[in-house]
Please model this.
Amino acid sequence: MKLNACKECKKLTELDICPVCKGRTTPHWVGFVAVADPERSEIAKKMGIATKGKFALKVR
Ligand SMILES: [Zn+2]
Model:
């Protein structure tokens, strides 16, 4: 399965357009973090993630 990462919010999705912020997505990303509870996740806070799901660590 091919996954793209949103350039704006780093959300991982199979779509060409981010379902969260409607930003453009790219197949060029490295690493990911799965956020189950954004309010309790330090990584989510650091990255500014407010929704649960999978997010790329680095998006080019
Ligand atoms: Zn997005």
